Amino acid sequence: ELRGVVALDGPSGTGKSSAARRLAATLGARYLDTGAMYRAVTLAVLRAGVDPTDAERVAEVARTARLEQGDDPERSTTAVDGVDVGAEIRGPEVTLAVSPVSAVPEVRELLVARQREIIAAALERAGGIVVEGRDIGTVVVPDAGLKVYLTADAQARAQRRTRQDHASGRASTVDATLADVRRRDTYDSTRAVSPLRPAEDAVELDTTALDLAGVLAALVDLVERRG
Ligand code: C5P
């Protein structure tokens, strides 16, 4: 068992990212946002003018693009070819194209290997690492010391995402976001490789009625109980 690793999985809009980042800061741990890595590959695909559903060409972009992912919880940075893309990877173009890109087996192989390297490096220092994604407990670190699977009803998740969009200056409506949340849920949980699902030994945490402080408190409690 890897005691220094907290694996946080679940669909979008469950409060996962904010809570993961805050949990890492609270524990003095590193923080790895694996969704940002799939989003960065997707941005590189779009910039190269490649069709996101063309698996062969998508895999080629993933092999050749220079991707960097930081693991500082206070300032999680993502760069493509040396340029920070933190804002751009959250935009609607990337969000629309990220599911087919992340369903390409070779993309997953490359990124999972990279994620394991970042995790191994973090474990050499004190403090451990909080890793957030869709397949962390099932594929990336199946021996993580604590696995949490966050859920929330679709309406609550759409409302959270819409608030985040507005806070970042992106126009969106709850209805459009709800449609996007449902589309990605279906795509991510029915894909052939590493579909989104809870690990058998994951603790499920329903965040529908919780705010960020509530989610964080529940996670800290789970970490403490694991000792
Ligand atoms: O977490 P975030 O919404 O940024 O993830 C974006 C997309 O990246 C997800 O909808 C999913 O398709 C993909 N993803 C994945 N595996 C992960 C993390 C994200 O397939 N571990």
UniProtKB/TrEMBL annotation:
Q: Which of this chain's residues are annotated to bind ATP?
A: 10-18
This protein's source sits in the domain of life called Bacteria
Give the GO molecular function terms.
ATP binding; CMP kinase activity; dCMP kinase activity
Sequence ranges assigned to domain Cytidylate kinase in this UniProt record:
6-224
Q: What is this protein called?
A: Cytidylate kinase
Q: Which family does it belong to?
A: Belongs to the cytidylate kinase family. Type 1 subfamily.
The cross-references to InterPro entries, in alphabetical order and at most eight, read:
Cytidylate_kin, Cytidylate_kinase_dom, P-loop_NTPase
GO biological process terms, alphabetically, are: nucleobase-containing small molecule interconversion; pyrimidine nucleotide metabolic process
CC per GO annotation: cytosol
Q: Which UniProt keywords apply?
A: ATP-binding, Cytoplasm, Kinase, Nucleotide-binding, Transferase
Per the UniProt record, the lineage of the source organism begins with: Bacteria, Bacillati, Actinomycetota, Actinomycetes, Pseudonocardiales
**Where, per UniProt, does this protein localize?**
Cytoplasm
**Pfam families from the entry?**
Cytidylate_kin (PF02224)
Matching entries from PANTHER family are given as:
CYTIDYLATE KINASE, CYTIDYLATE KINASE/PANTOATE-BETA-ALANINE LIGASE
Reaction it catalyzes = dCMP + ATP = dCDP + ADP; CMP + ATP = CDP + ADP
Q: Which SUPFAM superfamilies match?
A: P-loop containing nucleoside triphosphate hydrolases
List its EC numbers.
2.7.4.25
Q: Does the keyword RNA-binding apply?
A: no
Q: Any keyword Cytoplasm?
A: yes
